[in-house]
Amino acid sequence: MTHTSGLPDYENLLPPANPGIPIENQQVDDYQVLELLPEERQGKFRPGTSWSYSNSGYVVLGLMVEKISGLPFGRFLEDKIFKPLGMASTVLYEKGKAEITNRAFGHSRQDGKWMVQDQSRTSATRGDGCIYSSVEDLVLWDRAWKEERLLKKEEMDLALSPVKVPGVSPTEADGSAAAYGFGWFLNPWKGQRLAWHHGETAGFRTSIQRLIAEGLTVIVLGNRDDLNASDLALKIAQIYSGQEKEAAHL
């Protein structure tokens, strides 16, 4: 969960896509990722000795959840998180198993025109993606996090504690030298304690920025690939923080 396992990122192990075949027909699933990893003679580094973001770790984590719980991963998320929190518009999408109504499609600008670009070869893996949601549902999720209805305080503290890796100084705000807990980047912003993450795939850019001391969460979901979602979220946070300070001064 802290990206210190040394597992190679499966996205870098895939052979080049065949331009003559629809991309949806070339997608890999979690079990295919599990088959790719043993083909590597060694990991990127010995576990616990360095840090490198790896989607493979979260794919493996999703498979572990299935094995330990005895439930399909999507069912586990539905039963343990989505339904209890009232996240009615949120689903782990699996082709042929779940339908998504009224969803946004990703877009990319090509030759001056916006074109639908909605899927990539890695859009079908579940442990590191495949969740479709809305800002409204993510607000419910964020509120449950803050109210300790998802995790106990000691579990939250652990999630928000940077992993300690020899020789890695977690000081860079862009995450190049990452302060990383369980699923959260923790590099500070303008001297403030921050828990954040961004995401991108074909035609989509997203970001969630949580200013811990202020209790402020900014969520940006964009269905265009020219958007810097994290920059936009932090600009919104800066405006909000400025207004708060101005109101306090008055």
Quick tags:
single chain; two-stranded antiparallel ribbon; 6 helices; 29% helix; globular; disordered C terminus; 250 residues; Beta-lactamase; alpha+beta; three-stranded antiparallel sheet
The level-1 CATH class of the domain at 1-132: Alpha Beta
What structural class do the secondary elements suggest?
alpha+beta
Oligomer: single chain
What is the CA-based Rg, rounded? 19 Å
Biggest β-sheet: count, sense, barrel? 3 strands, antiparallel
**Helix content class:** 25-40%
Number of helices: 6
Word description of this protein:
With 250 residues, this protein is α+β, with helices and mostly antiparallel strands. It has a domain at 1-132: DD-peptidase/beta-lactamase superfamily (Beta-lactamase, 3-Layer(aba) Sandwich), CATH 3.40.710.10. 29% of the residues lie in helices and 14% in strands. The strands form 3 sheets. It has a 3-stranded antiparallel β-sheet, sandwiched between helices. A two-stranded antiparallel ribbon has the order 1-4. The protein has a two-stranded antiparallel ribbon with strand order 2-3.
Topology record:
Elements: H1 30-36, H2 55-69, H3 73-82, E1 91-92, E2 107-110, E3 113-116, E4 131-132, H4 135-146, H5 153-159, E5 194-201, E6 204-211, E7 216-222, H6 229-249
Antiparallel strand pairs: 1-4, 2-3, 5-6, 6-7
Provide a brief overview of the structure.
By secondary structure, this protein is of the alpha+beta class.
